[in-house]
Structure formats: C-alpha cells, structure tokens
Amino acid sequence: MITGRVVGVNGNMVRVEVDGNVRMNEVAYVCVEDKKLKSEVIRIRGKHAELQVFEITRGIGVGDLVEFTGELLSVKLGPGLLAQIYDGLQNPLPELARKCGFFLERGVYVDPLDPEKRWAFTPVAKPGDVVTGGDTLGTVPEGIFQHRIMVPFNMREQYTVRRVVPAGDYTVNDVVAEVEDPQGEVYPLTMSFYWPVKVPITAYAERLQPTEPMVTKIRIIDTFFPVARGGTYCIPGPFGAGKTVLQQITSRNAEVDIVIIAACGERAGEVVETLREFPELIDPRTGRTLMERTVIVCNTSSMPVAAREASVYTAVTLAEYYRQMGLDCLLLADSTSRWAQAMREMSGRLEEIPGEEAFPAYLESVIASFYERAGVVRLKDGSLGSVTIGGTVSPAGGNFEEPVTQATLKVVGAFHGLSRERSDARKYPAIHPLESWSKYRGVTDPAKTEYARKVLFDGNEVAQMMKVVGEEGTTLEDFVTYLKAEFLDNVYLQQDAFDPVDAAVGVERQRHTFDIVFDILSALYSFTSKEEARRFFALLTQKFKDYNTSEWDSADFRRLESEIRAMVEEKTTGRDEEAEYILSRKVESHA
C-alpha cells in the first residue's frame, strides 16, 4: 500500500508528501485520531499530492498518516439501490442514523447495499455463452422492475461463461457466475460490482439523438418548452421562485421509469421536506409509494463542501446503471450552483487562476461533461435506455447573466427560466413564457405553438404600452390582442397544482385543449367596445378554468366545451390569415 504524510492543511484540502506513485481521482484515507477520513486526489505535483477531504478536517495535523487505496472514487452497483437515501459517498443515511444517532460522525462508512438481504436470482446466461461487459447474466425482481445482473462494465474482452448458479435466493456478495477470458483466467462474478463515478458507462451498441418528448404533464413544458427523453434542461430562478417544487412535480408525473434526485448543497430544511414527502407520495403509475422507483442522493449545505461534487457524479452513475437495463431514467440535480460554488472554493485553495466571479476557468467544461452524460442509447440486445438530466441553477439575485447559468445554457437543450414577477403573482409554474426556450419538439403542432407564442409577445408589447399611455390610449384591436395573451396565460400556461385533474394533464388532453385555445386566439371578433371585450374574455377564462378541472371526456367536460365553442362562434367574424395558412398546410400534409 502506498502511504504519505500530511505536510499542509487548508480548510478541506490536505497536502500530502507521497512515498510512491498515485493517480488523479484516487481515493485516500487520512488517519486522524482513531478515524480514517475519505478523500480524493485532485492534483499531483512531483512527490506532493493535494487531496479534497469529504469530511470535516478538524484535528488533522502535519505528519498524520495518509493511506492510498489505488482505486478511483467509485459507487457500488447492484440490486437494492431503489428506494434508498444516500449521501454523496453512497452511504445509506438511514443506516448511518441507526449507527450514529441524530448527529452523523465523520469517518463512518456503511455498505451501500444490504449484504444480508437475499434476492431471487433467475439465470439468463448458460455455460458456453460468450459475454462481454454489460451483458446480462440473470435477473432479480426489484420493485416493479426486473433488475439485470450484468457482467461488470470494465470487462471489455469476450468471456466464456463457465458456470452459472441455478435459480434461487442469493445475497449481492454471493458468486452467481464464473467466466473465463481468452487467456484462460477465470473470474468469479457476484450480483454487485464497483464503477468509478467520473467515468461514463459506455457498454452500449449505439448512442442516438433524443427525439421523443419526455412527457411531464405540465402544459407549459410539454407544449411550449418540451424536454426530450434523453435530453437536458435547466431551471434557473431566484430564491423562492419554485425550482424545487417544479422538480418534485416533474419527478411525480414525468413518464419515466426511475427518478434520481441529487440534493446537492441545498438547505437542510428543504431536503428534509423532500425526504418526508416522497415516501408518502402515491405513484400515479403503480398506486404505490413513489419512493419505490426513486433514489435520493442527499448532500445538504451543512455537510462538508467537497462531497457536493461527489453527490452529482454518484447520482449520474446510478442513472447510467439503470439505463443499461433498458429503463428511462430522470436525474434531477438541485442545485448545480451549489456544486459550482464548491468547485470555486476548492479552486481557490489550489491557488488556480480564477475566471469570472472567481469561478474556476474550467467551469464550463466541467458542467458540459456532466450534462453530456445524458442521452438515449441502444443496448447490445437492441433495447433502448435513456438518461434525462434536469438541473436547477440558483443565480444570486436571479441574475441569469452570471457564469454558472451562462455555462449551463450553452450545453442544455431546454431552458425553463423561473420569474420572480410571476412567482410573486402566484402564477404556477413560474416559468417565464417569453424568456424560456427549447430545442426539442413538443407534443403539439410546432406551427400552432409558434403562433401562440407570437400572441404572447404581441400581448406583452401592448401591456408595456398601456403602462405608459393607459388603456384609453390603445386601439380596440390592440386591446383584444392583450386580452388574448392574458387568456392564454391564465387558462393554459398556468395549472392548479392542488386540483387532482388539472395538476397533471396527459398528452391527448393537452393536444385537444390546445386546439381549442388556438381557435380562440386566431379568431377575429366583433366587439363594439373594450368593456364588451373584457367581459367576454373574463367569462371565457372562468369557463375554461372549470373546463380544465373537469374529468377528461366526462359529461361536464363535453358540456363546458360546447358552451365555450358556442360563446366563441357567436362573436367570431373570421380567422386570422396566418392561422388559416397553418390549418390549410396541415390539411395538405395529411392529404
């Protein structure tokens, strides 16, 4: 074993003189008192190595022993990950609490997977089969999924299966198969293995372009600012604008198999709320607790700062692991700003040349490499798996021009910018419809969506003008445009999170509702006064809100829809030319 001695301590960074060769990202343990504190090599200079310690460094002194493991910072992969709550180093927090009580002790590390639990293993591979990294040896049931027991991803050669155990109950550490490499060496394989968190898992046949929408059942996202399955998106917003709430609603309603939440440096109170609520939330897909298909990686702002980086990489590695089983995974990182602040702190201690706002100069490349681990892949057996990454950003004062937000916007495919103004106006979700954007295709006709966006922009221009010249200074035509934009905002962009129907809206209903909204927005009306126009749209808005909360295709739903259509037809004199062209183009394409 390679060892070293501490020669300097600067906060959570320790400088070590090494008696041998070490490598970047290698795990080391700093021995202090009767504890061994886990750390990672982040820079090597000659015979000196700088380590970031994942624990509080109180008590470490010059001359203390450091033991290098020769292994990279890794997570243990195998059955039993679902429904767990881990810290950034993959220690199960409930198990730590049982060992340490209310206050977690440093230097205590627990096996991430229960070594005593027995799993019902069903073999898939047979003696004589040729396998390689990522191939399935057998399956075990884990919740509602069949968990694939795979050949470790780092075994890249062609191996011949020599032995597979018969169907039965085994622990994660029991040998379930033996394989032989071309040189004749035999490797025993268990249900679990380790994988370094900073190395992407590439045991697939092909990487594909994300094209299919990941349905969130939030209208403003699915219609206007969609996220592709296997894509990336970010949610920047000021404090209190609803970033965490939006992520929790998404995790509950998104059409994905596995949800992984990385609470990275968020306030402890906020994380505690998540931990309390998730076991009680009912999964709309199964009727059971949502926690059964969720993993939470929890690293609050009160925990050591270095572990924030580890928690982000731990979470994305777990997501990639389940993607290798042909599942669709959603990773929600909350918040990447706290992770960037941890990087800034470590960069300062390393005395690196600072970039903008003292963030490290390599901030953009680190953020890009994280989001690049999202994607859709075709596995070697032909099945598809995906990892979708959504990260919140907490810019100081809601300033989207700061470095973390800008670095994130360069690499993500959708931007859901939360607005303090909309949040204060109690508009949910508080996504700003004029500032946000998406590069992905939504669930509705893109031409109709663009038309509706144009109404929003035109209505906003009229609203700004009315602030100067007043309502009486605008024409009736402009005022109707303003009312149309307000109608679209009130009945489609906003949802009632407390209503069981309106809280989550399926694709079929979104398309149907948006077609009606498009007809209303594109209609030309015969109003004689602004007061008449205001009364018409106020009544229409109220009817539409009742329509939104009625059960899909119920008697109430059909009655309200016919009343809405009758109201509109009574005042309609025609249709906007651009809308006529959009509808005719659609008919032509169908023909």
From TrEMBL:
Domain called ATPase F1/V1/A1 complex alpha/beta subunit N-terminal: residue spans: 6-70
Entry's EC annotation: 7.1.2.2
GO-annotated biological processes: proton motive force-driven plasma membrane ATP synthesis
Residues holding ATP: G237, P238, F239, G240, A241, G242, K243, T244
Family per record: Belongs to the ATPase alpha/beta chains family.
PANTHER family found in the cross-reference section: H(+)-TRANSPORTING TWO-SECTOR ATPASE, V-TYPE PROTON ATPASE CATALYTIC SUBUNIT A
This protein's name: V-type ATP synthase alpha chain
Lineage of the organism: Bacteria, Pseudomonadati, Spirochaetota, Spirochaetia, Winmispirales
